[in-house]
Each structure stands twice: as structure tokens, then as C-alpha cells.
Amino acid sequence: MATKSQPSVPKSKNPSSVSHGTAESQGQWGRAWEVDWFSLGSVIFLLLFAPFIVYYFIMACDQYSCSLMAPVVDIVTGRAHLSDIWAKTPPVTKKAAQLYAVWVTFQVVLYSLLPDFCHKFLPGYVGGVQEGAVTPAGAVNKYEINGLQAWLITHLLWFANAHLLFWFSPTIIFDNWIPLLWCTNVLGYAVSTFAMIKGYLFPTNAKDCKFTGNVFYNYMMGIEFNPRIGKWFDFKLFFNGRPGIVAWTLINLSFAAKQQELYGRVTNSMILVNILQAIYVLDFFWNETWYLKTIDICHDHFGWYLGWGDCVWLPYLYTLQGLYLVYHPVQLSTPHAVGVLLLGLLGYYVFRMANHQKDLFRRTDGRCLIWGQKPRVIECSYVSADGQKHHSKLLVSGFWGVARHLNYTGDLMGSLAYCLACGGGHLLPYFYVIYMTILLTHRCLRDEHRCANKYGRDWERYTAAVPYRLLPGVF
User: Fold this and answer.
1) pTM for the whole structure
2) pLDDT tens, 339-379?
3) Cis amide linkage into residue 243, ω under 30° from 0
4) For the chain: N or C, fewer Cβ within 10 A?
5) Burial class of residue 260 (count of CB atoms within 10 Å of its CB; 0-12, 13-18, 19+)
6) How far apart are the first and last CA of the chain?
7) How many CB atoms within 10 Å of residue 76?
8) Are 428 and 1 a contacting pair, CB within 8 Å?
9) Which residue intervals make up region (Disordered) (predicted)?
């Protein structure tokens, strides 16, 4: 999903090329023009069952102490019925609805009404008004990059409340976790439905729309490429980054506060999860301008996949480690804790440096040093939608000479570290690394299929020079 995904989670950059400002053939962008039966079946399955998957994980923690098998065993053996489980599930409450409405409104205000000032005093940070990539129709959208500012303001207010203002308990998110789930679903479905109606009736750019004739696929994968309200409110950038990812670290802090309340201390495993995931979230917002050139913004249309995924899937399933540690506080041995920390930091280093090398290579058109040497490249060409031939370069030095998507490998190392911090008592906290492995492998194959279509024989030369995708010597 998102990032995250989704959903859609902070995502990694397309490592395929240094492009020179021209859109690719529309058939290679984002989603399909036509839908085969397998794709349609997958879409319908996700539309029907993804919300229940999220509910099942959260319910398992609430009613079965995070055991994924216990609910199934109870139902199969007759010790419980679905109606019994549902009856014990907290409903939506007025408090949760008000809390979520205030939260989303606050993030909209920070996104839309407060121009970025962080870039004026933070060396190296790029914020303010920035241009995105060229869309399939040839448009270049402008964005107000202020995600880091929104994250900082939100968290400063959170800590001010926890230590000075005392407007609400720091455990407020955990205490309303299931009622809030219903609120996030309402927003996810509302924004996805609005995006589809808007795509049909009043699109921002009709030339950047795709229609398949299948309403289910259109709803899930989106019609509009960059739906917007007014000049600045971009649905894709807002929902990919806010409110879900800003909330990610707040959710973890609330889980830590609940652990402190229940057990009188915060375990080192909870601290590790908070630190490692906060590094990842901060990296996302520090590099939000770079994010404009990733697959989420450059190739995905905005539909239920992103809208619901960023509202529900990301904040609820990407935070399972912290939720699990509330129910099962784990105090790691010093060697175990150090190992988890080093794995997480190494994964982040690989992820960030691989992306930095690609970004440096792109910005300088190859006139740079990578690992102290002039980068090796494969010269290639492609034909754009207007029939013109363009030249590009594929990097085969540094991390990009080790594997074609080593940034994804670093991402997966970090994902594994979050899970290992929870010990080995239950499967539930390991869902994240399993899901991310599937997501990034699929994204890797999808990206390579697009690049193979774009570059043809030049792509074959590239894969011969860098034969492995994620794990050198294995895959």
C-alpha cells in the first residue's frame, strides 16, 4: 500500500536512469489501460479483504494478546463465534471522531497554510516551492515542501503537552486505537471515492487521466495522476506523507507512554523501535523534495490503493511492533539490543547512501565521484511519447554496481531490525518485514518491466553488467 506502502511506507527511488525532462510513453506510466482477469481478481480481493486484514491484526492484540492463531482456533473449535469477537470490539466513539477530525484538520492547515521556513535555517535541507517530475501529459507540477516543518511542529506540541500543558494523556492514541480505526476507514474510503468522482467529472488535468472501463480497477488504482484542489493541495503528496507518516512516530510515542503506565518502565526494545522508525520517518521528510521523483509520485495514480492505504494500512500495520510491545514488553539482552541497533543503522546507511549516489549521479549528469572514482555508466537511449529519441545513462558504480535495487535491500534490513527488536515470541510483529519483502520485490519487478520496455537492448546490457536485483549472488 503505501508506502506506504504503502500501504504505502517511506518508498525507495527508481534506480533506472538519468532522464532529461521528457515524459515516457503513456503505456509505461503507473497503471494499466486494460485489465486482465487476474488483475481484476486481485483488485476485488484487496477491496473486500484488506480492511478485514487490518481489523484482524488489531483485534488479535486487543482480544487475544497478539496471537494470530488463537482467534482461528477459537472459531474452528466453537469456543467463540464471529459475533462474539465483534461484540467485544470497541465501536467508534464521539471522542475518537473528534480527535481524528482535529488531527486531520491540523495537518491540512500545516500543509496548506504554512509556507516552509525550515529551508531558510537548516543547512542542506531543500524545502519550499519545488518542481515535480514531468507527468505523462507533459505537465510539471509545483509543490510546497513543508513536511519536515509539519513533523517538527506536531512533535514539539506533543512534547509540550506531555511535560507542560497536560491537555491530554500521552496514551490517548493507544486508548482510542480501535475507535480511531473506524475513523481512518471513513476518511480512506471518502477520499478514494471523491478522487474517482473527481476523475470522471472535474479532473485537474484530463490528459493525465486513465480509464479502463472497469469501475473496480479505476476505483482502486485511481484515474487522476495528480488530483488537486486549488493550486497547492495535492492529494497524492498530502496523503502519502500526511497525516499517516507524521502520525507514525506519535503512535509509537503513545505506545511507549502506555508501556510506562502499565509496567512502570519503557523497555529497551520499545526504545529501539521508536528510535529506528523515527530515523526512517525523519529521513522521509528531510528528503521530501527527492520523494517527488519516486515511483509513488512519478508513476502511480491516486485511488483507493494510495488513499485508503495511507489513511489505514500504513498507520495501523506499520506500527505493529510498538503495539505488540505494549502487550508483551520485551527487555532485550545487551548483545541482542546492540545487534538490532547495528542492523537497523546499517540498513539505513545502505538505503540512504544508495539513494544519495543515484541522486548525485542524476544531479551532476554523471560528473561526480562515487566511492572515490569516476562512475561507470551504460549509455542508452529511449523514445518518448512524442516520437523523439533521447539519451540517458544507467549507473553501474557504487551500490548500484552491487545490485540493481540495493536501496530496497537496505530498506528490508531496517524492516527486519524493527521486528527483531520484539524477540521471537509471536509472528505478529514480523508481518512488517514479510509484507515489505513482498511489496519491494513486486515493485522491483514492476520497475524493471517498465525499464525493459523503455530501454530495450540497452536494459539487457545493464542487467548483464549488474546481474542481481536485491541480494548479490542470490536474487
Assistant:
1) 0.89
2) 999 999 999 999 999 999 998 898 888 889 999 899 999 98
3) yes
4) C
5) middle
6) 23
7) 9
8) no
9) 1-23
